[in-house]
Give the backbone structure.
Amino acid sequence: MIQKNVFKHIAENMNQLSKSQKKIANYLLKNANMVPFFKVATLAKNAGVSEATVVRFATTLGYSGYPEMQQHMQASIQQQLTSMDRLKMSSQVYDDKEKAIYDIFNDDISNIKATMENLDVKAFHKAAQLLLDAKKVYICANRSTASLGIFLHYYLDMILGNSKLLGSSEVIPEQLYSLSEDDVVIGISFARYSSSTINTVAYAKEMGAGTISITDNLLSPLFQHSDVTLTASSDMPSFIDSFTAPLSLINALIVYLGKEREQEVEIRLIRMEEIWSKFGSFYKTET
C-alpha cells in the first residue's frame, strides 16, 4: 500500500507517464480538492481521455485500480478540507439542481456497496467478540458522529446492558476513571477526524483496554490505536458527512450481537415492554 500523499506521488512520477496520462496528472494536480470524489467516467471526461486510460494511470502509479487510488486521494485531502472548502466542492460537483438530488442518493448507495464489498469479516467478528466479552463498553463519538454514537449506545445497552456514551472532551477523563483491561472503548470518527476521539482511543489502548474504531479507511489516525478497525465509506463532495454506510455497518453489528445474545435480549425486552407501558412511552391510537 502506497502511504505517501497521492498528489505528491503523482508529481514525483510525472516522467514515467504517457502523454495522455500526463493530461490526467495535470488535471488532478490543478483540481486536487474536487477530483477525489469523481467517478472514473467524470474524471475521464474532464481530463479529455478514455476511462481505460484513467484505470491504466492508476495501475501505472502502483495502485490496484482507480478505486484504491481514489481512496488515497480522498484521505490525502479530507483532513485539510474545511467546511467552506467542502461547500464550494459540493456546488461544483452537484451543479445540476434537479439531477443533484438523485446523484446524492446514488452516492449513498455507492457508499453502502463499497462498505459491503470491502468488509473485513474477520475484523467484524473480532469486534463483536470483544464487545460480548467486555465488562463495560465505552463509546466515544464527537461532533457530527455524535448521532452515530447515540444510535449505537441506545441499542448496544439494550443488548448488553453495560455500555456508556462518553460526553464532551472536558468530562471524558472523569468518565474513564474506572477504565480497566476488561473494558472496551469504541471510537467513531471520520475525516476531518476528532482529536478528542483519537486521544480517547489512544488512552484506552495505553491502559490495556480493548479498542475498536469505526472510521473511513485504514489510513485513519484511529487505526494505529485500535485492536480492530471497521471501515465504512463516507465519500460525498459536500460540507456534510455522509453517514448512510457507517450507520448500515453499525446496524449489522447490532443485529449480529442481538442474535448472539438472543435469550438475554428477549428477557430484557419483555421487561422493557412492561416499563414502557407503565410510562406510556409509545403513542397508542384510541380504540
Q: What stands out?
A: Residues 97-117 form the longest helix (21 residues). The chain has 13 helices and five strands.
